[in-house]
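Throughout our pipeline, every protein is held as a single compact record rather than as scattered files. The record that follows is passed on verbatim for readers who wish to inspect the format.
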Amino acid sequence: MVRKLVIGLTLALALAWPAPIREEAPLPADAEGAVDRLAATPRHGEWVEISEGQGASGGWHDKVRAWISYPERATRAPVVVVIHEIFGLTDWVRGVADQLAGAGYIAIAPDLLTGLGPDRRTPSERQEAVRLIRGLRIEDVARRLTAVGRFGAALPASNGKFGVIGFCWGGGTAFAYAGYEPNLAAAAVYYGASPDERAIARITAPVAGFYGSEDMRVNSTIPAAEAEMQRLGLQFEKHIYEGAGHGFLRQQLGREGANLKAAESAWSATLAFFGKHLESK
């Protein structure tokens, strides 16, 4: 009898007590955890094809395949275009898009190798993806990014603004792209090389750069770009994280905790940067 009363009381408490609330992770998953995080996301994500609007050129298709993640919010959302690394559109990049959606943004991660692999398919081998990306022209990439940004900005759920964020090769591309699209509202650069003065002269959007101190290959390009941005009166905020290496957001367990510390600080600053420039009227 006592056992039945205990079981009944336990069941009653379980039904009365609210279920635990799923807490949103504060950072995108690292490279190892991206697939599991994507599988567990409560948000809607889907593959789309976006027209470039100019037809095929130089062997390029006139459509871009992209992954889009939608936020759960009651108001119209800004768009962030996520520019992948030199390895192509990986699960980790899609995970970054999902994390941005969790922060309230419509995040679109285009496959910038769409149609460029064997039989006009995206290459499945990492080495082939790296080889093809190294051969891309910024003019072609910019055309595709603009098509994706405009597609996102025209969505019924969008507030009409779009920014970009990029990592490694994508970070350098995000910085350079700011000089190709006058309607771009913000560019976040993660450990990407800076463009030359000619490209900087065309920039109108604010730029934020996030770098590890142990990444001189990239960091050596910052001073000249920073000086030129300041000379032209352009907005450039620089964040360099002590002890962190290249790719710290993807490799959060690296460099004895420095990468994770950098990732936490950089992601918080990124959301503040986008909030300022994409959410405001």
